[in-house]
Amino acid sequence: MQRSPVYPPRAHARFAVRGWLVTLLAIWLIGVIGLLLVPTHGHWVPNAYWLIAPFARWDSAWYYRIAAFGYFRPAAFVFFPLFPLVMAGLHAVTGLTNVTAGIFASWAADLSALLLLARLWREEAGEHLMRRAMVLLLAYPAAFFLVAMYAESIYLLLSVAAYLLMRRGSYGWAAVLIAFAAVERANGILLLLPLLAYSWEASRRRFDRAFWLRTLWSLLPIAALGAYLAFSYVKVGNPLEFLFQQATWHRHYTGGGFAIGYALIHLFYGQGLPLAILDLVMPLVFLIGMAFDRGSLSLADKLYIFFGVLSTVVDPSIPNGFVLMSATRLVMPYFPIYLSFAQRLKESQWRWAVGVMAVLQVWLWLSYTHWMFAG
């Protein structure tokens, strides 16, 4: 019988730091060399040095303008305010440009999230499976968004930290972090589902007084989201402007939850691009992986993954000419699924999964840096 490797104390933290550093350097090198070999003409970013410019593309422009000028037009309400506020705050305190502040904020949040994930997964499954899950996350095709000037890394940090607090019974502090997540991403409010699930399990599955008292904390994230909706109403007269402005990106809502069906039709008639195929496959992989989980996912995990992925693919905005725009990126932060896959994949399967995803990530990263659509 083969023994599990023995790891020294704090090895999980050192592994997370090494993983963050290696992937950041690899992404940076590939991006810079790619730009040197094939120059691009997307020069919207002010004061962005060429060394960090690859990290600021596409939606980064919106975050920059919101941080610098506020919600300057109705379409900006699609982007929730926490990340631009962090950028503007760092700019005010450090004197860095908004772009540099945004990139550094993403890097710091990504490192912090990986450190907390290493701790959470080590507690749940041990050091070896933690490492396998961490590599799966870092190799994920859209993982480079964690170090780009996007909101993904801060959202991942908030969600993992909230999970750790829930597991320790600190529902109040978890609700505070979920409140921040609710104004970081539109579906950040879904973190209330694991909060209620942990509260339910702590009450021995009874609607006792303690359960209802803990449930009161859920009002805090609802109030935070409500504050953003109220701000939207005051500014443009519509609290749901972030939904109605999807037309800016040539998107529309199906109204009946047929996004996956439309995606299959697009692919069947040859209208799907490679990225569109990936945007269809990755959410399905997450849902199928959750459905066939063998006990590694808790009730809180399953609720978070299921409704999080469903909110992306059941009735999202369907863009003209694409199938499921950005789905690969948007499902990435539902982190419990990576540990489930780490536990179930055989060594050879795990290696193949890591290799294929890493190749896809390089392709998406080069597409992103060269202003070709990458989600």
**What is the H/E order?**
HHHHHHHHHHHEHHHEHHH
SS summary, helix count: 17
The parts where pLDDT drops under 50 for at least 5 residues are none
Spatial strand sequence of the major β-sheet: 1-2
- Structural class per helix/strand content? mainly alpha
First and last CA, distance: 45 Å
Helical percentage: 55-70%
Strand content: under 5%
Give the radius of gyration. Answer: 20 Å
Biggest β-sheet strands, sense, barrel: 2 strands, antiparallel
Tally of strands? 2
The shape is globular
Average pLDDT level: 86
Return the domain count: 2
Please give the structural blueprint.
Blueprint: H1 11-37, H2 60-69, H3 82-94, H4 98-125, H5 127-139, H6 152-167, H7 171-182, H8 192-202, H9 209-215, H10 219-236, H11 241-244, E1 251-253, H12 259-268, H13 274-291, H14 299-313, E2 317-319, H15 327-330, H16 336-344, H17 347-369
Helix pairs in contact: 1-4, 1-5, 1-17, 2-3, 3-4, 4-5, 4-6, 5-16, 5-17, 6-7, 6-8, 7-10, 8-14, 13-14
What keywords describe this structure?
about 375 residues; mainly alpha; 2 domains; two-stranded antiparallel sheet
